[in-house]
Sequence to fold (260 residues):
Amino acid sequence: MTKTALITGAASGLGYELTLLLAKDAYKLILVDINAVNLAKVKDELVRGFKVEVITLAKDLSLPNISQEIIDDINNEPIDVLINNAGFGLFGSFAETNWERESAMLHVHIMTTTHLTKLVLEGMVKRKSGKILNMSSLAAFQPGPLMSIYYASKGYMLSFSEAIACELKGTGVSVTALCPGPTKTHFQETVSEDSKENKITFNMASAKAVAAYGYKAMLKGKPVAIPGGFNKFLATLPRLMPRNVAANIVRKIQEKNRED
Fold:
């Protein structure tokens, strides 16, 4: 029987690359993204290239109860793979940044992702089969001055994913938190209104490589996946120093990127 995968943020970046991998494995695809035009293009590409069934849902994932709306739109169809990929960043001091934008980020990264996971998870546990991939970040391992909400929300996603992964041991369902470092996607373009700000180029990975790493980790049921040896090293550093020192280091890096 054909398995079904639901992917948020599927129209570009890591979500798009993960969608390609699922299409190659002949999944029926339910693609969710706020960009209806890009969704239509991706659907056409997948149908022509892989002959798979594709359903697209143009949704604003920052809206309350949008997860339930998605499940209702697909008539509560059983989901075999859930990839919570949608997200964005915002650069600047918390005292000065836009609350509406931050509130939307918190809803996308935390409320919608958590609710959608809960709605899908019940069926997975009953069927004793399922895989969930939650998009966290290398940012999850330390506080992030000048991107405080983004770092904190990714920290939540890592902790949440690890906790339920432990709860689900022996059920046939696995949860993986993918924690990439800087990745070449459109993410940087949405972080700041000034396109010169926060343009990290060091240790930049391709979206295709990160997606392949995360997809493989998900299939293996690994709780945490950090692509790249240097990123694994960076993830351990905050454990070896006081948190205020880690925060100061991140701030200096952010400020330098802003100047560059």
